[in-house]
Design brief:
The protein is an alpha/beta fold. It has one domain: NAD(P)-binding Rossmann-like Domain (Rossmann fold). It contains eleven helices and 14 strands. The strands form four sheets. The chain has a seven-stranded parallel sheet, with helices on both faces. The chain has a three-stranded mixed sheet with strand order 8-9-14, covered by helices on one side. The longest helix is centred in the first third of the chain and has 18 residues. The chain is globular.
């Protein structure tokens, strides 16, 4: 099958390009940089496209849209050109395509102590969402309004991680200083996470599905995790030994959030003190989703990858590298 992947130079786009190419699909990988990384060309044909402006795409069987600016520390206006206008431009450029798979985000939900189902989006409380969450919710609204695809899938993963991760893992490792993990509060909340291969599995199911119209699903590992346990397990595997843990009283970052010191916001505090566990029963029942990967069976592979790319110091600076370079 001929598949076009947007955002192919990002962490998720790079993973999906390799994953689907190795499944035997013909991949066209799209990104905004002029010259593609050499490693990318082993798996796909490269197509330069700045999605913030109108453009043309070649005809393919499936579009997988991963391109987005995913920064919680910028204003909404900085996210709109790529996340919202970009999505609209892609829709206009691919009206001939029968199947569109949009990678949205669990950021469209407000943290909750309830298990989160697909109908619990923050559309009625948009100001409680991050700017990124609001931008992703807008992309979904555009799809619902303008999509003429025979089949459209909106997938909402939570905290994507695995080999090649340039977002979640570097953030967690930045809590380490001189072999001590300094964490704000107890971090004993329940959170969903999504290993890359589980999202790949969900995409396989969407590609094979004959469901029509727009279908929206949460995507995550089989069971939620306790956040502090995630940090302990990852750092123990990567540092090849258990590190000391030091709890910073939660009132300190709460006070900092009032004045937005160090980029700490009330939204971030909610994320550290409230559960964010996704209900994945819908995708199981409707598509037959059966996630096989989890944190425990991924730890050795992640630790080996971190070592192979140059260790923790390299990964902590992952934002300085393309996904294909680390």
């Amino acid at each position: 099958m001929k598949i076009l992947i947007t955002g192919a130079t990002g962490s998720l786009g790079a993973y999906l390009t390799k994953y689907l190419s190795e499944k035997g699909h013909q991949i066209i990988a799209s990104g905004r940089i002029e010259t593609p990384p050499k490693n990318l060309l082993k798996y796909a044909e490269y197509l330069k496209a700045d999605i913030t402006k109108p453009f043309d795409f070649p005809e393919v069987d499936v579009i997988i849209h991963t391109a987005a600016v995913s920064d919680d520390n910028v204003e909404l206006n900085a996210l709109l050109p790529t996340n919202v206008t970009g999505t609209e431009n892609i829709i206009n450029a691919t009206k001939w395509c029968k199947k569109f798979i949009h990678i949205s985000s669990s950021s469209v939900y407000v943290p909750s102590n309830e298990l989160i189902t697909e109908d619990m989006t923050g559309d009625k409380n948009k100001m409680k969402l991050s700017a990124y969450g609001r931008s992703k919710l807008l992309t979904e609204e555009i799809l619902l309004e303008k999509s003429n695809y025979e089949s459209c899938f909106i997938l909402r993963p939570r905290a994507l991680y695995g080999v090649g991760d340039k977002k979640i893992l570097p953030r967690l490792l930045k809590m380490e200083h001189k072999n001590i993990i300094k964490h704000p509060g107890k971090m004993d909340i329940s959170v969903s996470m999504t290993e890359y291969s589980n999202l790949g599995h969900a995409i396989d199911l969407c590609i094979d599905s004959d469901k029509k119209g727009v279908n929206t699903y949460n995507v995550a590992d089989e069971e939620p995790y306790i956040l502090i346990d995630v940090i302990k397990k990852l750092t123990t595997a990567i540092y090849e030994g258990e590190l000391k843990m030091k709890e910073i009283p939660i009132w300190i970052p709460k006070l900092m959030s009032v004045f937005k010191i160090g980029g700490i916001t009330p939204l971030l505090i909610r994320g550290l003190t409230m559960n964010m566990a996704l209900d994945i029963s819908k995708i199981k029942e409707e598509l037959g989703y059966l996630p096989q990967s989890n944190l425990d069976n991924s730890l050795n592979e992640i630790a080996s990858w971190v070592n192979n790319i140059g260790g923790v110091s390299k990964l902590k600076k992952a934002e300085n590298y393309l996904a294909w370079e680390i």
